[in-house]
Amino acid sequence: MAFTFFFRDAQTLRLAIEQFHPYIQSRTRITIWSAGCAMGQEPYTFAIILREIIGPYLFRNVKIYATDLDQYGNYGKIINEGKYPLKDLERIPEDILARYFTPADEDPSQRIILEEIRHSVEFHRHDLLSFEPIRSGIHMIICKNVLLHFSAEERIKVWMMFWNTLEEGGFMLHEHTQKLPDELNGKFELMVMNAQIFRKIGK
Predict the structure, then answer these.
(1) CATH number of the 10-81+115-189 domain
(2) Are residues 157 and 128 in contact, defined by beta-carbon separation less than 8 angstroms?
(3) pLDDT band at 165; cut points 50, 70, 90
(4) Distance in angstroms (rounded) separating the CA atoms of residues 51 and 177
(5) Which burial class, exposed, middle or buried, applies to 45 when counting CB atoms under 10 A from its CB (0-12, 13-18, 19+)?
(6) Chain mean pLDDT for the chain
(7) Average pLDDT of 97-121?
(8) Domain ranges of the chain
(9) Which helix (H) or strand (E) holds 170?
(10) In this structure, what are the phi and psi dihedrals at residue 58, rounded to the nearest 5 degrees?
(11) H-state helical runs in 60-197
(12) Residue 90, by phi and psi: left (phi above 0), alpha (psi -120 to 50) or beta?
């Protein structure tokens, strides 16, 4: 299984949401794609920080489609249950942990994510190398620590798929090592200098 943990790179996620907030604040439906989600730590972290920043009223309009190749068929059950061992939650601030997680009845070493957050995340198996989007009309795509495993040609095809499925002005977030190649010039605008947060240019 891919290894990650809750609140990994939380500062970048928070920065992306601060850029994203004005774009979504009047929308009745907010669609986010977390591509390469592994066991759900990143989409759930994003959902919690998003809920903290935009508040409960606007958060009701959020749906995060969390996808992964999931070769062994484990991720869907884990994400749908939203139950994780305490060791995976060590980096979550104490007040956030208390607010968004409750002890599992059958195992005190496990915590379950609040239903409001769990309800916002929906898992689907998906292969990015199919170059087919999960749906159209996406407002933000989060894809971190995945594209580095692809060839340069494959990455460009995935980025073009992202561009095509994003709504006009939609956002895209990558890890800090992932730079866009010259072939994507004119497709995305870099929003900040200290993180790989992009915005779609054109329709």
Answers:
(1) 3.40.50.150
(2) no
(3) very high
(4) 27
(5) buried
(6) 94
(7) 95
(8) 10-81+115-189
(9) strand 166-174
(10) -70, -30
(11) 75-81, 94-100, 115-120, 152-165
(12) alpha
